[in-house]
């Protein structure tokens, strides 16, 4: 369903109301149906709705006025000149997971790049801006491996872990989406202009904020609900005890999303937040397998890709054992030991470890099969 021009202008005008929080916008839309309904509402009735700031009341009273529509029309024209698409809440192209799974979805989204159906298989990777080399490498590799399996990587274009996650997805030739804490016509931090262009080419830049909106501190917790809302799972890589990434994790839990955390050195302050999440029940994430196992069945990548990727993560000894096993003909422990020139006792321990990892099937009588 595509909004006609007049309806689009009204949605954009609502989004431009000064001081109107996402929660208040959701309250108004639930009560009056759409921006046209809000525009037709007498000012006296709007006065009875609590917590609306005075300047927002003034803008709402003029929502349907020619001046308000003209300002919205100029905004739409500027967005299109930037190559951005303006999406409204009722449109089919608006992300379903935001519309249905977030209590206060933005009335309007500005998108540079493209959103595709496959973006529903999305994993968010976020973390510290002042990340360690360990954290940067983990985030990059995790994003790379998940993107190679067809997952879209969601993050916030920030310094540190966010940037490493975007770059890992791009290096894999996969998709990534950056959710901004400012208008779509700006890049923050400014040093990420080149990265923003790459993200746009490999996915999308996305913002709920009107054009010209700068990166204010209070914008980032607001945008974090979209990072979690777009995702099936949120993975935190390095976070101090008091961290914005932990806000994203909390929002994910409130939205019914899974949360994972990467462990780190116990001596590092940037491990404190992730270790706290793990103690509180978050999934411990050591690599892409831990993430994929947590995804709903319908969103898991092709099992053949998972199998090949999981085998690639095994050490050389384990891969040698699998190379001599067959999925059809059971092999006895003593025969395998002879072929590999290993002691039966040591080989048995390795086979049982591979069985626990679901690479091997143990049969009665000391026989083993490679699991398909």
Which descriptors apply to this entry?
Rossmann fold; Arc Repressor Mutant, subunit A; alpha/beta; 18 helices; single chain; 372 residues; 9-stranded mixed sheet
**Total number of distinct structural domains:** 3
| Structure annotation, total helices | 18
Largest sheet: 9 strands, mixed
Q: Give the total of beta strands.
A: 12
Low-confidence stretches are none
The general outline is: elongated
Strand arrangement in the largest pleated sheet: 1-2-6-5-4-3-7-8-9
Description:
The protein has 372 residues and is α/β, with parallel strands linked by helices. The chain has three domains: 5-113, 3-Layer(aba) Sandwich (Rossmann fold), CATH 3.40.50; 117-302, Rossmann fold (3-Layer(aba) Sandwich), CATH 3.40.50; 314-370, Arc Repressor Mutant, subunit A. Helix content is 47%, strand content 14%. It is built from 18 helices and twelve strands. The protein has helices at residues 5-15, 22-32, 35-39, 43-47, 54-61, 66-81, 96-101, 133-148, 161-171, 193-201, 219-229, 244-254, 272-279, 288-292, 303-312, 316-324, 333-340, 344-356; strands at 84-88, 108-113, 122-127, 152-155, 176-179, 203-207, 233-237, 258-261, 283-284, 331-332, 360-363, 367-370. Helix 12 (244-254) links the parallel strand 7 (233-237) and strand 8. Helix 1 (5-15) crosses helix 6 (66-81) and helix 11 packs across helix 12 (244-254).
